[in-house]
Amino acid sequence: MTVTHLTSAARTRRGVLATLLGDRPALIPAGTARGRNYPGNPYPYRASSHFLYFVGLSLPGAALWLDGDDQRLLLPESDPLDALWHAPAVSEELLATTGLRMGNIARLQTLAQGRAVACPPLLSGSDRQRFAALLGRATADLGHREDVDAALLEAIISLRLRHDQAAQGELRRAAQASVCAHQQGMQATRPGLLERDIVATMESVFTREGFSTAYGSIVTTRGEVLHNHEHGGLLASGDLLLADVGAESDTGYASDITRTWPVSGQFSATQREIYTLVLEAQCAAIDRVRPGIRYRDVHMAAARVLTAGLVDLGIFEGAVDGLLERGCHALFMPHGIGHLLGLDVHDMEDLGDRAGYAPGRQRAAQFGLSYLRLDRDLLAGMAVTIEPGFYQVPLLRAKPELVGLDLRALNVTRLSQFADVRGIRIEDDVLVTEAGHEVLTEALVKSPDAVEQLMAKRARASE
Amino acid sequence: MTVTHLTSAARTRRGVLATLLGDRPALIPAGTARGRNYPGNPYPYRASSHFLYFVGLSLPGAALWLDGDDQRLLLPESDPLDALWHAPAVSEELLATTGLRMGNIARLQTLAQGRAVACPPLLSGSDRQRFAALLGRATADLGHREDVDAALLEAIISLRLRHDQAAQGELRRAAQASVCAHQQGMQATRPGLLERDIVATMESVFTREGFSTAYGSIVTTRGEVLHNHEHGGLLASGDLLLADVGAESDTGYASDITRTWPVSGQFSATQREIYTLVLEAQCAAIDRVRPGIRYRDVHMAAARVLTAGLVDLGIFEGAVDGLLERGCHALFMPHGIGHLLGLDVHDMEDLGDRAGYAPGRQRAAQFGLSYLRLDRDLLAGMAVTIEPGFYQVPLLRAKPELVGLDLRALNVTRLSQFADVRGIRIEDDVLVTEAGHEVLTEALVKSPDAVEQLMAKRARASE
Q1: In a mutagenesis test of the A interface, which of B34, B51, B84 is the best target, namely the one with the most A β-carbons within 10 Å?
Q2: Which chain A residue has the Cα nearest residue B44?
Q3: What is the pLDDT of residues A67-118, one digit of tens each?
Q4: Fewest CB within 10 angstroms: A259, A305, A387, B21, which?
Q5: CB-CB neighbors (< 8 A) of B46 in chain A
Q6: For chains A and B, what is the number of CB pairs under 8 angstroms?
Q7: Which of B161, B159, B123 is nearest to B18 (CA)?
Q8: Which residue of A has its CA nearest to B216?
Q9: ipTM confidence
Q10: Confidence (pTM)
């Protein structure tokens, strides 16, 4: 996959978008770099996913103008001294592969001619002000979430929901880099190191391969804090290490993998029991993935396996159906089974639930299900994560009434025997295909035996 | 140095600030996390340097309220479910070491009681809007650069210009981490690798030690592009690798080191000649650093050594004084000799030249000197970088008229013999002391022989 494949794919995507929009002009800005502690010291630049999708290149400060066949790449004014300080974002040759006419962004108002211009939500307040000014709009703000054009968003969603061949290739590349990082992470783990030693090992795989992180890496022995970005903890022999680490390609495509492995290289009996249960839940969910299946049913399939397993283990008491209906499993798995994956790790989350929820569907009120990010019927070309988990969250035990959890079915004594399981999550990236599905991250070990064997190899090598 | 040392230092700093401000209340926000591609996927959080300075802790969304003796840490509304998703930013115990009263940020308008509130520039448009709303201000924007309180800024500058003991300790820690990264970078370099392999080696030192990068790492064989953040280039045997990589401590303090080393492990004769000249210029500049010296004179001392050396090498023809006066050296060193260093790598650059330039002084018009970021008389406790360089910038050769460069003194034939020197920079961090100065980054090799010896050790070890 080369970058020019993506500019070629982007051209096709623009053709569809133009048809869907008719005579309504659209503006899709790339976004500008944002200062970290002062304007001249920016965070690593990352273009907007909508821009990446329809242009195929990362161009700070640029914008795509799309008005039927009149499609232009609007570039910011350049300073003749730029070449002294900066390498060009892309070469002239690569720019030419977009097939777009080049224009100056200062001409935006002339292009718009006073017409309403559709624009996706813009992340940065400064960008919203900048483009409002460039369009000569009275309001000093453009692209607020409340102020977006429904027709544009529906058109974007209809395109980005199903990944074309170019996108699928990029998702595979990102998945492969993440697989490699997780393998090295497992093999680098040993008692006495810190969590951040494993972060360094895993993220340096990305840097060496030309990837970045698709989201803040979670590498923690305190897996029960769902988005724990602290990395200072010591790895002790009885701990499980939960690593939710995913690569992003230089073209913007994400991967999202979680594995949980024992610091010592060997699961305890209790860890192995719960791990195996989470894995069974994951396999049951992945098995269901195919076109036409409702994603919420995939979620419920995992929840059922989890609930039944917890009854078998004696942690819950009662009938599976009733427990499931009351959402009791959310004590241990408060989040949804997964989400869309694409140019964003939660793909198109900037559009709110408009992308994740089919028209007419909305979030459930019940705790747990309320965190489900996706409720559509699956279509070939969609990519989703499947990521069940088991966590012992002190807050939910201490204050179940806060979220309406009914814990009467919980066998507290039995659960106390699993105290060495703080948090387990197993997550893979799955592409829906015409025939069913393809697990993009299949190359990464996940059975308890396979994880232990991979970790043992390293231990032997370093003896 | 522990974090509680910093909350203790911050308390002292607040006392001085309150005295300087009199009865004028000030608001110093920490800033909120900023989305990378959507709001829920933020860049790594980094609190504002002003907040870090006066509180000593990183607390997303918080703000310091300072009104004489009434000093409060205003915290954002917390969601009872936060503990499910996130680890607390800091522990209650650590929060208590600030000695601040805790308050709710929603009470800001009540605290202000309609008085004018001084506020430093806020980086994020969303934060500017948020605090304007919290204060009930008619304008939807607070803390724009044009809208800041001069008395507050002068007070902050007078404090932050001279580093107290706590700050000096943190600058030393950051310098030490950077020294270690550069040593490992040199030893990891060999032909056939990519620039990003060295980035991975150097940055993983920071991750392992609990540091982050203070700015986007520059690791490039194309040193002539001054801020080249591309890392895809191949390391070839005759290349020089320029690495401008600095750590930031978890308390926010920066370091900023550049070294330039030969990919092969051995400088060519021409590379060694220019490298030695740049090093001589650096030593001459560092030698001058002491209280009472004007920083621009430090810059000119380096420029003089560089110019004289280029005359000796036959690259320039003519009298040193005249060449220097006409700014001819800016063809090869277009930037200034360095800048303030502290919580920001260009310390307080968010305040524009107000921090870097003493009252009554302003940027020179002449190309080269116009990029000098600091023109103050040095004071004990200031930290500065000293970073002369030599670059062959095609743009400046091709279009000298663009910047008013006079190239008549250039011996083009002689210069063409130095084609294997694209860019060299040597940069250290220097603390001004009562007695003169302390080079914080002294432990890092820089003579050509020492660099070659360090690189040879690795080569031998891997044989």
Answers
A1: B84
A2: A216
A3: 999 999 999 988 888 888 888 778 889 999 999 999 999 999 999 998 889 9
A4: B21
A5: 36-37
A6: 175
A7: B159
A8: A44
A9: 0.95
A10: 0.96
